[in-house]
Amino acid sequence: MTKRDFADFADAPSDGAIILRRALIGVGGGTVLLFMAGMIAGYTSGVIDRGASDLRDAGILGAMVLVAGAVAFGMWRMWPAMNDEPVAPRVKNARRILIGSIALGAPLGFVFGVADESASEFFSNAPVSPILAASVIAFWLIVGPLVTWLWWRQIDEHEAGAYREGGLVAAHTYLFVSPAWWMANRAGWLPAQDPMVVLLGVCLVWCIVWFVRRYF
Amino acid sequence: MKNRLKVLRAERDWSQAELATRLDVSRQAVNAIETGKHDPSLPLAFRIARLFDMPIEEIFHDEA
User: Fold this and answer.
1) Per residue in A29-80, pLDDT tens?
2) Which domain, by its residues, includes A70?
3) How far is B54 from chain A (nearest CA, A)?
4) Residue B26 belongs to domain with CATH number
5) Under an 8 A CB cutoff, do B34 and A12 touch?
6) Same domain, A108 and A165
7) A84 touching B, CB under 8 A?
């Protein structure tokens, strides 16, 4: 290895541009993929409900799968690579846990979407079947905390600090926003609180603070 | 808290990623320590001191 000039060390390599490009591709492509997965699940449910499928259904489903595949391939091709740097074992483990949880959760979500006819209303407050509810609750209460605990054991103290700070800001967001919304609802200014909207908002704040503290 | 991590790393011709691997932390953690955005815990500060074979106070300086 050649001796590096001190200038190489003067400024820390910035991941900002790469991370932002990844975020744009991930959010944009991910949204399209989610939309396509929902369309495929919905159409498949419809075909199963009808009890008979024909060549037209197969063609439409095939086309949707092809579009989803093309989007996924495009994301993979455009995905900007970080420098080829060594990575600490605990960082590798934390990444594996995150990737594993996504790889496990995404197909399960798809299976739930196809398997239960009430699942087309999954992201609403409509009633769902007891089997679907029990499966999702068990997954969320057992697998969720277990994976989170495994991930927490692997991350380094800097990321743990970013995660804690994100949690603190998110908790305070909930502390201040939720009662204000409740009072505004009682005054007739806002509709009643939807707990899942509140949860998503809290999680979004948590993620933003974690991301900023970790990468900027 | 100020520190000499970047200089010590440069003297050994290590990248941030190489130092991070030796300390078993992420490269972002090393970057945050070098830029003063994150003060390491005592256990990590001791690991850094052992790695560079120096007392902690020769690496980290109180700004006061």
Assistant:
1) 888 888 888 888 888 888 888 777 788 888 888 888 988 888 888 888 888 7
2) 16-81
3) 21
4) 1.10.260.40
5) yes
6) no
7) no
Q: Which of A158, A215, A216 to mutate to test the interface with B (most CBs of B within 10 A)?
A: A158
Q: How many folded domains does chain A comprise?
A: 3
Radius of gyration of chain A (CA): 22
Q: Among A134, A155, A176, which residue terminates a domain?
A: A155
Chain B interface includes A91 (CB < 8 A): yes
CA-to-CA distance for B60 and B44, rounded, in angstroms?
12
Residue B64 domain flag: no
Same domain? A146 vs A96 = yes
Structure tokens belonging to residue A197: 């909207």
Where among A26, A54, A81 does a domain terminate?
A: A81
Same domain, A59 and A99: no
Q: Which residue segment(s) compose the domain that B51 sits in?
A: 2-58
Residue B32's pLDDT band (boundaries 50, 70, 90)? Answer: very high
The separation between the first and the last C-alpha atoms of chain B, rounded to the nearest angstrom, is 9
The pLDDT tens digits of the residues spanning A193-215 come to 988 889 999 999 999 999 899 88
Write out residues 15-34 of A within 8 Å (CB-CB) of B.
15
DSSP A13: P
The answer to whether residue B63 sits within a structural domain is no
d(CA A207, CA A213) in angstroms, rounded, equals 10
CB pair distance less than 8 Å for B25 and A3: no
**Do the domain assignments include residue A6?**
no
Determine which helix (DSSP H) or strand (DSSP E) holds B61, and give its type and residue range: strand B60-61
Total length of chain A: 216
What is the ipTM for the molecules in this complex?
0.92
Dihedral of the alpha carbons of A129, A133, A139, A140, in degrees to the nearest 10: 150
